[in-house]
Amino acid sequence: MFVPKKIKHRKWQKGRSINRKIETRGTTLAYGNFGLKAQTGTWITGRQIEAARRAISNFMKREGKVWIRIFPDKPITQKPPEVTMGGGKGDVKEFVCPVRPGRVLFEVDGVSADIAKEALRLAGHKLPVKTKIVVKQ
Predict the structure, then answer these.
(1) Per-residue pLDDT tens for 14-40?
(2) The CATH number of 34-79+89-135 is which of 3.30.300.30, 3.30.70.1070, 3.90.1170.10, 3.90.1720.10?
(3) φ/ψ (deg, to 5) at 68
(4) CA torsion angle for 137, 30, 69, 34 (degrees, to 10)?
(5) Contact at 8 Å (CB) between 127 and 39?
(6) What is the tens place of the pLDDT at every residue in 68-80?
C-alpha cells in the first residue's frame, strides 16, 4: 500500500472542492506513449491506486513499463464509531491523493497499442473517477 515515509504535519485540514478547477500540472504524457487521464475530480486512496496498478501489470503480463503519476500524501482522519462529539480530531485512517479533472494518473509504454489500451481500460474500472485513455501524438 502507498503511504508516505514522512509527513510534516500529521493531520491536515480538509481543503476545498476538487471538481471546481481543472488541473494545471501533470496534464500531458511525460514518460510513456499511452496514459490514463482523469475526467472528474475526487480523492483516490492508496488501495485504489494499487488495485489499478495490479490490473495494468497483470494484463500486460509484466511486459513493458508502467509509471504511476500520483501519490497519496494527504492524511484523512476518522473518529471511531459511537464516540460523542468533542475530544479533538480523529486518528489518521488512510492517505489519499486529491485528483482534479485533467490529471494523468498512469502511463504505459513498451507494449502494443491494443494491449496498452485494454490494460488502461481495466485500470480505469478500479478508480472512482471517470477516465479517458490518451495517446502521445
Answers:
(1) 888 887 888 999 999 999 999 999 999
(2) 3.90.1170.10
(3) -100, 115
(4) 30
(5) no
(6) 999 999 999 999 9
